[in-house]
User: What shape does this take?
Amino acid sequence: MINVLRPEAVFSRSAEGTHRPSLLYPPANGIRYRFYYNCPQVILSNGLTMVYIEFHAVNQEDIKTCSCKMIISNNQNDAKKILNYSLTRGFHRAVAIHTNRDPTLVNLVVGGFQRRFQWYDGAPYFVVGGQSTFTHPGGWIREYETASGRWYWTTNPGHLMIYDTAQIVT
Assistant: This one.
């Protein structure tokens, strides 16, 4: 379920008209540090409710004003899914950051198209005619090679063509 936090979920109004913290307030303080810590993902919990926030930023500066996706849950099964989702997105982002530090992979061209990574989640994409696409325009597919711990692009499933990421697992 995707929801938007209303101000009263973080603050409640006292009889005097002043704002006082509600149950989610202490962890919600972490949201203001998203820019400082350069992290587009925030998980908040008060023990009963878990909130996952993903800021769809194109860079660190954009975190201040970008749109975001929120998932709010108060059941244990959904909380497990949120944690799994955030770990997966975080891992893909870490792979993209690590790959962008490798000069042989930062400007990778796959089948005539330059591959780029989204900043907030590490998803690979291509720009064709000014439009972003997450599928390769030439039909190439991305697969994971367990032996090397790397993603690669291929036109023939199961047959390595071009490594896409730096080695993460050794």
